Amino acid sequence: MTSSPIKASGPRVALYAPEFAADPHRVYREMRERYGSLVPVDLAPGVSATLVIGYRAAVQILHDPEHFPADPRMWQRTVPADCPVRPMLEWRPTASRSAGMEHARYRRATVAAIEGLDLHGLHTTVERIAIPLIDSFREAGTAELIEQYAFPLAFQTINVMLGCSPEIGRRAAAGVTAVFDGVNAEQGNAMLGEAMMELAALKRATPGNDITTRLLQHPVGLDDSEVMQQVIPMYGAGVGPLVNLIANTLVLILTDERFAGGVLGGSLSTRDALDEVLFQDPPLANFCFSYPRQPVLIGTVWLPAHQPVVISMAACNNDPEISGGERTGNRSHLAWGSGPHACPARQAAYLIAQDAVDQLLDVLPEIRLAASPEKLIWRPGPLHRALTALPVTFRPSRP
Question: How far apart are CA 172 and CA 296, in angstroms?
């Protein structure tokens, strides 16, 4: 007999609750024991979805855009404009929210714009930004690395990549934070859109060697509004998740003996630590939304039409059916997505995060957490794995 996640026995799991943010892996284990691979969840009060926590089911869905299109327009008709998660899920004229020919057009322009990045130049950019940031706190012997290092580094680097001025970037970053946290998300979404529309107009008037200019000049002929819509997810995925990736990797290195001794001693690389984080605590824990056009049977569960299906990259990566082996050098995780909507900027993200961690550890090799790991606080939210703060101590030194 088949069943729908909506009618599954037991309550829906509230992904927005602080209890989930505090210990998501415990919640994922309880989900698996009770529901199997497909779990009835709420992304916000009254906003139902199906969370996919089985690796094989996730891969099947990610590679089947015909049955699992990314276009949410039918769903969002039923969702109020002030819903805290709507700005993250609603339709935009972008590859990540489109299907068919629309998807192909936007994806072609986005991939080309990102592939135009000079990765050697990007390495130099990260170094140029990181050193003054580290110098600003190295004499103090203490720092809070989210506010003083990871966020400003990601923010400034993404601004360079997009050709974005600091003033426009500040408004965009504030909008991104509101959208991810689900606090004043509607206003944050509007602020982000206005800032990115200004950026598109600026680069139309004064082109540069940047992603925004390449989007404007691509042969598919995007107008300013379309370019603005392509840049919004780049900013969203570039700042918040990149901050989380840097911070989560530093936590791993500073708390796990496999890495604390290995990275600093040379037996394991920062890249190994990044991949461990992308398996265990990816910065976007639950993402890759799709919306079946009609009820779809996965295993013995019917997924309802026009209800969000969300891939839990964190839970799928740790699915007992596929996990348990050696992870060093293993990059089979789903942290970047998979299939036609896979992240096209993974190479740049790896480079920025790795350089950010390496620069910090090179200058401050004796850095330590200023609080025990269990005292670190994780920000509530259905999508991200994000610390509120990362306090550290180290031997003071002169810049």
Answer: 38
For the chain, the domain total comes to: 1
H/E run at residue 237 = helix 224-255
Q: In a 3-state reduction of DSSP, which class is residue 150?
A: helix
Domain range enclosing 217: 5-393
pLDDT digits (tens, 9 = 90+) for 258-286: 776 555 555 578 898 999 999 988 999 99
Number of H-type helices and E-type strands within the chain: 17, 10
Rounded CA-CA distance 8/11 in Å is: 8
Pull the structure tokens for residue 314: 């964190």
Query: Could you tell me if residue 207 is inside a domain?
Result: yes
**Does some domain include residue 368?**
yes
Percent helix, percent strand, percent coil in the chain, to nearest 5 = 55, 10, 35
Domain membership of residue 399 (yes or no) is: no
What is the domain-level CATH number for residue 358? Answer: 1.10.630.10
Establish if 398 belongs to a structural domain. no
Q: What is the rounded CA–CA span in Å between residue 283 and residue 343?
A: 13
Q: H or E stretch including 157?
A: helix 151-162
Cα 36 to Cα 9: distance, rounded to the nearest angstrom: 12
For 109, counting Cβ atoms within 10 Å of its Cβ (0-12 exposed, 13-18 middle, 19+ buried), the class is: buried
**Separation CA 92–CA 239 (nearest Å):** 19
The 10s digit of each residue's pLDDT in 344-373 is 999 999 999 999 999 999 999 999 999 999
